[in-house]
Amino acid sequence: MSRIAVLKGGWSVEREVSLVSGRECAKALRTLGHDVVEVDVTRDLAALAAALDPRPDVVFNALHGKGGEDGTIQGVLEFLRIPYTHSGVVASAIAMHKPSAKAVFAAAGLPLAASKVVTRADLASGDLMPRPFVVKPVDEGSSVGVRIVRQGDNRWAEEARNWKFGEAAMVEAYVPGREITVAVMGERALGALEIRPVNREMYDYDSKYAPGGSDHLMPAPIHPTAYDAALKIGLSAHRALCCRGVSRSDLRYDDTGGEPGRMVLLELNTQPGMTPTSLVPDIARHVGIDFLSLVGWMVEHASCDT
């Protein structure tokens, strides 16, 4: 039996999701026989240090978004020399910052959509690439702030002038087709799943976390060549960022010209959700890894970078 601290909550816009991930993982760890303490993380570093005293054997990091997924909490745990789940400081920081991650992926030769980083003033000045295009915050997760701008969309001009996700944004060419996600566990790509949002044009925050918000098709019903390509891209992205533990890569599969189509990597999530509607547990379950085994494996492979 190990003493495990599950970090959850945090102060990002993904706080509520993190609370659910943390609750589910803590429940699984108790079922596995561990001594578990749940810690609702705030910006109070002294309170976090107190919550980690006595020192746990492992920290299970169930935080999502800024502060918990971007290298910040990982740096604290490195300083305290406590092994923790998921990726380390550098991989976490790069993956959370979309332009930096895309630069690494490009250097690794992975297929990407054309994109540019722009200022708030640039956004307000007019369209920066032909429609349709996608606008994203540079450092948010769970599709927060993601916007598809299509032909005839007259609302975008006002939204662009009132952009509220920082001083910069990423503008990216829209890739038509289907939503595909790949789970990687250590050095193994577990599988590729297709996501079909229900009554929405994109896989947004509500589609991810609301019950019935999307249908998960596992394995993804796509051409075998495309399926293999998705697995290869997901594993290559994981390796390119030097991730550890579990990661999830999000892709678009453009099959509008027939199959096999082209696979495009959008981003990588170093701390995928572990809620009842999350994708990685679905993928793992399909290859015979139940939720308890998945959570147990994460704890067994917890580490410090240095």
CATH topology of the largest domain: D-amino Acid Aminotransferase, Chain A, domain 1
User: Tally of extended strands?
Assistant: 12
CATH class of the largest domain: Alpha Beta
How is the quaternary structure best described?
Answer: single chain
Q: For this structure, what is the CATH homologous superfamily of the largest domain?
A: ATP-grasp fold, B domain
Which band does the percent of strand residues land in? 15-25%
User: What's the helical proportion of residues?
Assistant: 25-40%
Q: Strand order within the widest sheet?
A: 10-9-8-11-12
- List unreliable stretches of 5+ residues: none
Terminal Cα span: 25 Å
The major beta sheet can be summarized as: 5 strands, antiparallel
Please state the second-level CATH architecture of the largest domain. Answer: 2-Layer Sandwich
Radius of gyration: 19 Å
Number of domains: 3
SSE order, one letter for each helix or strand: EHEHEHHHEHEEHEEEHEHEEHH
